[in-house]
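Inputs:
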Amino acid sequence: MADIPRDIEALIDLMARLPGLGPRSARRAALHLIKKRGPLMQPLAEAMAEVAASARECLNCGNICTGDLCDICADPARANGQICVVEDVADLWAMERGHAFAGRYHVLGGTLSALDDIGPETLRIPKLKDRVVSESASEVILALNATVDGQTTAHYIADELAGTGATITSLAQGVPIGGELDYLDDGTISAALKARKSF
Amino acid sequence: MADIPRDIEALIDLMARLPGLGPRSARRAALHLIKKRGPLMQPLAEAMAEVAASARECLNCGNICTGDLCDICADPARANGQICVVEDVADLWAMERGHAFAGRYHVLGGTLSALDDIGPETLRIPKLKDRVVSESASEVILALNATVDGQTTAHYIADELAGTGATITSLAQGVPIGGELDYLDDGTISAALKARKSF
């Protein structure tokens, strides 16, 4: 029986390694690309090659950028003494979409994990300590995920930064905007109740 | 507020146009690619550029290939007088995975649709008629989807091929292998009952 042409098979195998795509949806996406060779596949190949060649990590905060420093670290207006610590670039983008934070970031690139052999150096925690001192930060906001790993990492960082004089804060926990109590987990409700405030 | 770098934004926009990826999963996939620039993004960009440059439609059957004729049309062993008509290349691949068909294919590229202005010429139905005569096909198997559009197209093709002398058949309808009656729709059960055979 005839097979799929070898280079198309190779393309499908590579696409199946993207998060959110399995072998079946990778086949579907590849066929879609082949049908739209001109308007989609060619520009996508070029965009990928371009980003693969130019993208790198900001030497200061770990954000993705094309130069030595990301736009945020290069912008003097954002040197307001606040550093927001996030796990991942996706979290940084989410914070920026919220348009609520005007300071700088520090991207850890993960959470501490003894099992996966991820220690403080891998997460650039020593670099964070240096930055808090050199940028004389007044506040470090720990915007880590509300998971066990995220909170363990938050506690470790708070301990590490104890002597620097910066205030350590973390995101509030509570009922999300638009959230219905009936659909919330017990932990969130209990955290929101504990942190209740006068109305 | 700082935005995502422009070329990364462009990459995400293009990726969000793939079937199965929305804006959110496109962002996730793009970040994953950037993290794996060397092992994944670079080879994927190259594979895409290569396939975009080389992929084309088989002049005979409409399958995807890199030359004038696809492997199946170029293989004299598959000229057994049977032509299997499918809607899409994905359906052809599905048939080939079944390893049950040893003849050739004819890929329509869709189904007849007055609404979307898809007529017989767009679907290469005249070309199918020519092939049935020139390849003196003994049997044309209509392997179209069991949808209203698929079956309408099947009836139209059967009418068109009426004078050619080829036997027109279609895939059997019934209970899928491993299927449980309780989970099947009424139409399938009634089709399977009507087409029952001696045990």
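Chain A has a mean pLDDT of 91. Flag for discussion at group meeting.
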